[in-house]
Design a protein that fits this description.
This protein has one helix and seven strands; from the N terminus they run αβββββββ. The protein is mainly beta.
């Protein structure tokens, strides 16, 4: 039986003796953290902001807020690919 057949998750593998499971890969660490200042990149090369990272609800996603805490884009999750450090 191959490792892929035994493994219930792509993140779990087994050592050479097929006895000990271990984590083969980890979830990506977020690029930005809550409180970081960023610009929102808009199509056409322009940018808005700076804004503050309000939350990081999922890997590769964030929500933004103004300095007063008001949500940007109605609190919509934004791809980290569309923000850059301020």
């Amino acid at each position: 039986m191959s490792v892929s057949e035994k493994s219930p998750s792509p993140r779990i593998s087994f050592d050479e003796d097929d006895k000990r499971p271990y984590v083969a890969s980890y979830v990506q660490k977020p690029i930005f953290h809550v409180g970081d200042k960023v610009y929102l990149l808009i199509s056409g090369g322009s940018r808005e902001g700076p804004y503050t990272i309000a939350s990081v609800p999922a890997t590769g996603k964030c929500t933004l807020s103004l300095d007063n805490g008001q949500a940007v884009k109605n609190g919509a999750e934004i791809d980290m690919d569309h923000v850059e450090s301020a």
